Amino acid sequence: ANDPVLPSGLIAAISNSYIPLDGDYPKTHPIASPYFASDEILRQFPPTLIFTSSEDPFLDDSVNFNARLRNVGVRSSLRAAHDMPHAFWALSTAGIPEAREVQEECKNWLSKMFNL
Predict the structure, then answer these.
(1) E-only strand ranges, the chain
(2) What 3-state DSSP class applies to 13?
(3) Is the confidence at residue 1, as pLDDT, over 60?
(4) Distances (CA, A) of 116 to 81, 101, 107, 111, 112
(5) 88 vs 72: CA distance, rounded Å
């Protein structure tokens, strides 16, 4: 993906800061990311809503993670916005209407999950 917010070089730098190479856990440990969790752990996940975008470098990971959750019986939904950068949902104050729409959908989804 061609993401202006999260180019590939920045991903490595952030990853190395988040999980240091000389740290207690490898980057493929479930404590670093639920993407690496076993099916046994994933079965314990609550209903899950995943947002991504067509330009997000983690789009494939999001699709795969959603499929894994669904394959172990977790109610999981995936939404992908078209032509938006990574973490676009945080850009509502920058005048991106899709960000506000996602925030509203998340609010409604959480309200439904918590019977509010």
Answers:
(1) 48-53, 76-81
(2) helix
(3) no
(4) 26, 19, 10, 5, 6
(5) 29
Helix (H, G, I), strand (E, B) or coil at 94: helix
CB 64 within 8 A of CB 33: no
* Rg for the chain, CA atoms, rounded: 16
DSSP reduced 3-state for 46:
coil
The residue with tokens 């959603």 is: 66
Residue-wise pLDDT for 21-44, tens only, equals: 787 888 888 988 899 999 999 999
**If you average pLDDT over every residue of the chain, what do you get?**
89
The answer to whether 27 touches 14, Cβ cutoff 8 Å, is no
CA 80 – CA 61 distance, rounded (Å): 12
User: Is 30 in contact with 38 (CB distance < 8 Å)?
Assistant: yes
> Average of pLDDT values for 46-67?
94
Reported as a single tens digit per residue, the pLDDT across 59-73 is 999 999 999 999 999
Tokens of 20: 């240091």
